[in-house]
Design a protein that fits this description.
single chain, mainly alpha, two-stranded parallel sheet, 35% helix, 9% strand, disordered C terminus
């Protein structure tokens, strides 16, 4: 599957990864152009079935690149809510 819209339809979770990893900084401008159609944004997330749709990111997220700020904020809000509702939480060292 090459189209993000096809991949998201019916998905409960949309997982994003950074477009430019450490050591690839020289390719960052090129990668922004090539991967622009794969951004996890509000339009893409609207294709996933509510109410279960969630987005995740491996972090660190480059807001405005692979994920929009609005989608990333919603993900962070969900993590905070889930942390309060569960005894299993992610803690920073």
């Amino acid at each position: 599957m090459r189209e993000p819209t096809d991949a998201v339809r019916g998905a409960d979770v949309v997982y994003a990864d950074t477009w430019t990893s450490m050591g690839q900084e020289r390719e960052a401008d090129w990668r922004r152009v090539v991967f622009a159609g794969y951004q996890v944004n509000e339009a893409l997330m609207s294709l996933a079935p509510p109410p279960t749709r969630r987005s995740l990111h491996c972090l660190p997220a480059h807001r405005g690149e692979e994920v929009t700020d609005a989608v990333h904020r919603r993900t962070a809000q969900h993590r905070r809510r889930a942390g309060r509702e569960s005894r299993f939480t992610c803690r920073r060292p």
